[in-house]
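Appendix C reproduces, verbatim, an entry submitted by the partner laboratory led by Prof. M.T., so that reviewers can inspect both the input and the predicted structure.
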Amino acid sequence: MVIKRYKCNIGNFSFPVVIGGKQKWLNFSGSRSDEGYYSTGNIAEQTAIESSRRYKRGEIVCIGSYALQDEEDETPEDAPTPQEVVRLVTEVNTVQEAREWLIEHCGAKAGELPNKEAVLSRAEREGVKFENL
């Protein structure tokens, strides 16, 4: 998401924009009476501001923008994915043994593993492969 910061040459200034057919007031505020600031990551608001007469006349200017890191990108790049790390378990021969193994070694709860599909799904997330199952 890109956040843009706007500056208005009028302090504590509000003006209406139409977004999605509805009027919305954008409030520029600041500590000085001759400048107001407004920041938004909303693309519709950014478009409304940048297509306004005040922006085109230079009364409102974009003074900067920055990108926020998406939540999906917060995983470290060197963190292994479940497909990269596979722990091969050979001593498990039944679904019940696999269930018990996941409870003991991975902290799974018994209620989370009611059937074979759930056991195999959890094993995949944990990077475990039951060779004899």
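The longest helix spans residues 95-106. Additional entries are available on request from the coordinating office.
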